[in-house]
Amino acid sequence: MAKRKSEWFDWVKALLIAFALAFIVRTFLFTPIIVDGPSMLPTLHDRDQMIVNKFKYRINEAERFDIVVFHASDKKDFIKRVIGLPGEHVAYQDNVLYIDGEPVEEPFYEDIQDDVLPNPGPTNDFTLEELPGEHRVIPDDHVLVLGDNRNNSTDSRRLGVISMDQIVGTTSLIYWPFDRMQTIGK
Questions:
Q1: Domain ranges, ordered by start, for the chain
Q2: Model's pTM, two decimal places?
Q3: Known catalytic residue at 80
Q4: Which spans are transmembrane here (predicted)?
């Protein structure tokens, strides 16, 4: 009887440890997310399932073209691409991204598949000053984010710049559906 009790206790202990580790990993390191909508086409598709790296920005700064998940509201998280970094001025003119007055290529548009999104469409002209908040440069600890599908995206053009405190993490791994399993580069 003592041997059975010991086995049962070992199983309970193992399960508690497993649940504790899963809780720690999901809370502090990685969490899944499902893409909701077409705002990141052609890079991400509606219903793609991804892993969010929650600790990268605890040790590193955000980088241009990172794909991030952030709290848009208490009930909704968005996935968008970092376009502008703290201290920078961002503008779009004639479908060209300008950072501090210099044109910047957007390499993620190079391999667009016509069957997914025939044309990312023009990004309507704007300057940082015209966005909510009317900033002259992006404030410290904030980023400017845009969806890749610029004609169908709620992003910094409507929300203003995003505080790093709102950012859950960065994501680059699609794990479902299997035929789309891949790591997304910049």
A1: 30-183
A2: 0.82
A3: yes
A4: 12-35
